[in-house]
Structures are given as structure tokens and as C-alpha cells.
Amino acid sequence: MLSIRNLGVRIDNKLILQGINLEVAAGEVHAIMGPNGSGKSTLAQTLAGHPDYQVSQGQVLYQGQDLLSLNVEQRAAAGIFLAFQYPVEIPGVSNIQFLKSALNCQRKQRGEPELDALDFITDVKQKMRQMQIDEALLYRGTNEGFSGGEKKSNEILQLLVLQPQLAILDETDSGLDIDALKRVAAGVNAFRSPERALILVTHYQRLLQYLVPDRVHVLQNGRIIRSGGAELALELEQQGYTTDTPSEDAPTQKREVPDDNG
Amino acid sequence: MRDDNQLHAAVVELVALENAEIKYATVQNWYPGDQHGNGGIFNFVTKRGLCAGAHSKISWTQVETGSAITWKYPSVILKGDYSVGEFYSVALTNNYQQADTGTKMTHLGKHTRSTIISKGISAGHGQNSYRGLVKVGAKASDSRNHSQCDSLLLGDTCGAHTLPYIEVSHPMAQVEHEATTTKISDDQLFYCQQRGIDTEAAVAMLVSGFCKEVFHKLPMEFAVEAQALMEISLEGAIG
């Protein structure tokens, strides 16, 4: 489904990713782990097409097409979904309006008809019950004044409604208490299918207890330094990221600040 | 042929007697001139209201998307005790349009109340000014006003200006003024785009969210119309 070859990415002329190679097949779950500043979020943002991240080398194929030649909304319509580490507030635009607009814009790009309003609302409400999200959130401004936990749950609700092919979850577990984490994980598990793939970007092993990955990759200093099965996450939890290369321990930049307002 | 300017001058006067309530809503899309600022209507309008009786109410709602230049200050004289004046406005300027609009709320009676919500959106080289006067007379005891002026800037060649005048002659009056200036952030745009919403649709959605409090004051069929007009007027404003 996704094939990343020798990907290099710069931001503000600073090289963040230095030759990433990654193959993700349909039905698989891959976890990307690593310390702060290792480039995990950069990889997620680059795949989604954030304009601040400039690709300096390499190639990304998604379902056989050149992903990097598509703009952000084309990638979304092609089935790429990014659950944001910090979901953005859209004041005055209700959650339901935002969801409907997103779904219909994607359908329009794919040449599909707009969804019937009643079918849409029935589907959304059923998924909210599944995620145990209060229906009142539908009529509030998108993410406006939501708690950290509500924002993360809302991202997963969008995932379930939009039904993408490849979901990238950027630290969706950060800032969640244990109950919220279980709800989020259950939502993501409901999304899994043999046709879909999932990339989990995370610091911690705890999410992976509920969402067992097929492959775990360790990103450090812009490179994947180790790959393994689910057991690698446990090993990292016990030994830390830096047992092999203690000299490179010091995080060079801290773009990823843990969110603690869950 | 349409390089000349035309003048539109209208006078609207409202009088509300005891317990009467008047709501007056306008959606205006006169020809704004071309993208270089040639031609267009000069929309210089007088709108004023008198709450003559006790417990009367006058509410002005306006959506201004057209005209090369708009000067318009729908006003209310709150003469009757316990009378209420409201002004809800959305003004959008694109290309070289100018909108200078606001209200005058003159509190004369006791326990009079007024609410002002003004939303200005500027794009291109558009200029938007809110110009308003809240005046509380010496006999208008226990009067209250709340004003909120929000400006949204699209791009770096437009302007927003807020000129509130407040004159209070009674010690028991309560007058509040809030003003904000915002822009659509790159993060908001990226978030919308990542969900599949293209730039133009995202801007229209974010702008309508910004105007929501005022659109809610419009009659339903007007609100739909106003929303569609905003989208047309914003075409090509970002991108």
C-alpha cells in the first residue's frame, strides 16, 4: 500500500529525515517509535503533505501512485488520514458541519454523490455511541474548547466516519487517561481491516498493548535504526531508546511536547 | 461602460411604540467595481430608529458584501424606558472595496439596553472600518451596552479599523466594548485540507464560522442567501 524509499525531508533548511525506507502492506499495523525530535511527527506531516516540510530526496508510492505529486486534499480523498497530535480548533464551525463538509468534499473529488443527510447523521451518531462520545460535541465548534481527551477521541470519530485506507496516528495516545486510551484503541481497532493499514507514531508502549502492531520501527536522528515485531516495543520500554548509541542521547530539538491536559 | 460610479442613497426610518418590536434585515450585494477598483456603487445610506415607547425594541441586521464604498450607520434612539436596541453586522470587503459601517445607540430612557455585534472581513486590498457611538444620557439610569467588534484579515494587503466612541453621562451605566482581530491560520487551513476540504471551501467555511453569531439573527432564507453571497465575494481571496 505504502512504499517509502530513501525519503529525506527538510524544514527551514534543517535536515530532519535522512533516508527513510518503509514498506507498509494493506492490513498491517506499523508503530514508529523514538525519542523527542527523532523525526516521527515530521514523517507523519510529510505523508499528509504539510507545506512546511520539503522533501529533499526519495520517493513515496501510495497504492502505486506518486504520493508526493498530490496536494493535501487529493491525498485525503485518496484515503490518507492523519490524526493530529494537536487537533486544530475551528471556531463557529460545528463538529457535524465540519465532518459533513469533509466527507462530501472527499466524495466529490472521487466522483461519488453526496451522502444523504439522514444516513450521514445516523452513521455519525452510531459511531459516537461506539466511541462513547457525548452527542453534544456534534453541535459545538470543531475542537473548540474540547478537553485534550475529547480532541483525541474526536480525531478517531473522524477516522471512523471518513473511512480512509491509510491512517497515520500522530501521538494519539499522549495526554489520555487509561479509560480514554482504551476507548480510542477500541475505535482504532474497529477501523482495522485487511484492506486498510495503520501507522502509529508514539513515544510509549502503552497504546501498543491495545493496538498490537505487526512491525515496530525505531526512529532516531532521522533514520530508522531498528525494526522488529511487537516484542521490540516491550524491549524499548524496559531499556530505553538509547542503549545502542548512548552518545547520541541528547535530543537536539523538542518539537513534541507531551500533552498533559487530558 | 461600468467604469463610472453610481450613488445609492436611501433613508429608512423606524419608530417603535410601546411594546412594539421591529426587526430590519438587509443583505446588500451592489456592484462592487472590478478587481482594480474601477466603478461600483457608492452606498451612502441613512438608517435610523426610534424606540419611542416603553419596552419597545428595534433590531438591525445587515450583511454587506457589495458596493465600492459603503457608509452606513443604522442607529437607535432608546427613548422609552426599558427599550432595547440591537445591531448585528457582517461586512466583507474584497479587491478595493471600502466599508465604513457601524451604529449609534443613544440611551435616553431608564433601564435601556443595547447590543452590538460587528464582524468585518477584509480580503485583497479591502478596507473595513467599524465606527460606532454608544451614548448614555444623564437620565438613562441602569442602562447597559455590550459591543463586540471582530475583524478577520485574509492576506496582508487588506485592513481593519475599529473606531468606537463611548460617551457616558450617568454613573450607573454599564458599557462594555470588546474587539478582536484574527486571521485564518495555516494550521486551520492544513487541518481542513487534510480532511479533504480544498482551500476555497475551507476559507468559506472558516469565514462563515466567524460570522455565525450574526447569520443566526437573519431569517432562514436570508441566511442561506447571505452564506452563498459570502462565498462568491470571497472567490480567489486566498490561494
From TrEMBL, chain A:
Entry-linked CDD domains: ABC_FeS_Assembly
Q: Where is the composition biased (Basic and acidic residues)?
A: 251-262
Cited SUPFAM superfamilies: P-loop containing nucleoside triphosphate hydrolases
Q: Which PROSITE patterns does the annotation name?
A: ABC_TRANSPORTER_2 (PS50893)
Domain ABC transporter: from-to ranges: 2-246
A Pfam family that the UniProt record links to this protein: ABC_tran
- The UniProt annotation puts the region (Disordered) at 237-262
Q: Which UniProt keywords apply?
A: ATP-binding, Nucleotide-binding
- What PANTHER family does this protein's entry cite? ABC TRANSPORTER I FAMILY MEMBER 6, CHLOROPLASTIC
Q: What protein family does this chain belong to?
A: Belongs to the ABC transporter superfamily. Ycf16 family.
Name this protein carries in UniProt: Fe-S cluster assembly ATPase SufC
Organism, as annotated: Amphritea pacifica
Q: What is the lineage of its organism?
A: Bacteria, Pseudomonadati, Pseudomonadota, Gammaproteobacteria, Oceanospirillales
